[in-house]
UniProtKB/TrEMBL annotation:
SUPFAM superfamilies in the record: Carbohydrate phosphatase
Catalytic reaction annotation: a myo-inositol phosphate + H2O = myo-inositol + phosphate
Transmembrane segments: none
Organism: Streptomyces albospinus
Family: Belongs to the inositol monophosphatase superfamily.
One Pfam entry name: Inositol_P
Top-level taxon in the UniProt lineage: Bacteria
Protein biosynthesis found in the keyword field: no
EC number annotated for this UniProt entry: 3.1.3.25
UniProt KW keywords: Hydrolase, Magnesium, Metal-binding
Descriptive protein name: Inositol-1-monophosphatase
InterPro entries according to UniProt: IMPase, Inositol_monoP_metal-BS, Inositol_monophosphatase-like, Inositol_monophosphatase_CS
Cofactor: Mg(2+)
């Protein structure tokens, strides 16, 4: 495990690259969004859109990082896939919250994580329309715009504000709606923001008590899970498992202990 008393200087380099790449991509996306933005292609369903700006953002990020670290690997939502030889892999979501971005809604972000030997060690989530950037280095805590952040102390489950998301496939959405229907009477309320990275950061800074979702990909969760963890939240999936495509959950420790078995019983991990 990283030692906060003896930080790895390599992580400082990775953090600075991630921050600058996210800043540049966020500026591109914010300032160059076409007024007539259209859909260039579809992913898994007609609801799951890919815009020309997704592709431009990912190319900007991979080109910038690749110039500085040509031996690193990449895993990107829009197709970047390079093995690399350095032991470092960048996990990139060039626009997390693509539908929000397409419609001109402000809840979208650029998410960049750096993994070293398979473990996320740096995470950056830049949300330009919020004028906020979240960052974390494993073992060193989490920041928002340079200031430390911490998860909200756990309320009773009945007073918890819980974020979630819904997948793009019809069958999955129906199953997720049934889980939410059962959960809503047991909590304060549920929010669906449309960006997993922002939702995880909202847990990190106390704007949500918890967040869960099935169906996230590595680029959706890598940076946000690290940021939430470094802010003191517990993160994971089904009991005994890490956050994954099957289920991702983040919450303050006491609330996590209540929600994880409840979500497991409700079948939040399967379609």
């Amino acid at each position: 495990m990283p030692d906060p008393q003896h930080p790895d200087p390599r992580h400082d380099e990775l953090l600075e690259l991630a921050l600058e790449a996210a800043r540049r991509a966020g500026t591109l996306l914010r300032d160059s969004r076409p007024a007539d933005l259209g859909v260039a292609a579809t992913k898994s369903s007609p609801i799951d859109v890919v815009t020309e700006m997704d592709l431009a953002s990912e190319k900007l990020i991979t080109d910038f990082i690749g110039e500085h670290r040509p031996d690193d690997g990449f895993l990107g939502e829009e197709g970047a896939g390079v093995e690399g030889t350095s032991g470092v892999r960048w996990v990139i979501d060039p626009v997390d919250g693509t539908v929000n971005y397409l419609y001109g809604l402000p809840s979208w972000a650029v998410s960049i994580a750096a993994e070293q030997d398979g473990e996320a060690v740096v995470g950056v989530v830049a949300a330009p329309m919020r004028q906020e950037t979240y960052q974390a280095v494993r073992g060193r805590g989490a920041l928002r715009n340079g200031e430390p952040i911490r998860h909200r102390p756990a309320p009773p489950l009945s007073q918890a504000l819980v974020g979630t998301g819904f997948g793009y496939l019809t069958e999955r959405r129906a199953a997720q709606a049934e889980v939410a229907r059962t959960l809503i009477p047991q909590v304060r309320d549920i929010r669906r923001g449309g960006s997993a990275a922002i939702d995880l950061c909202d847990v990190a800074c106390g704007r949500l008590d918890a967040y869960y979702e099935r169906g996230l990909n590595p680029w959706d969760l890598a940076a946000g899970v690290l940021i939430a963890t470094e802010a003191g939240a517990l993160t994971g999936g089904r009991p005994g498992k890490a956050a994954s495509h099957e289920l991702t959950l983040a919450a303050s420790p006491a609330l996590f202990a209540e929600l994880q078995p409840l979500l497991d019983d409700l079948g939040a991990w399967h379609d």
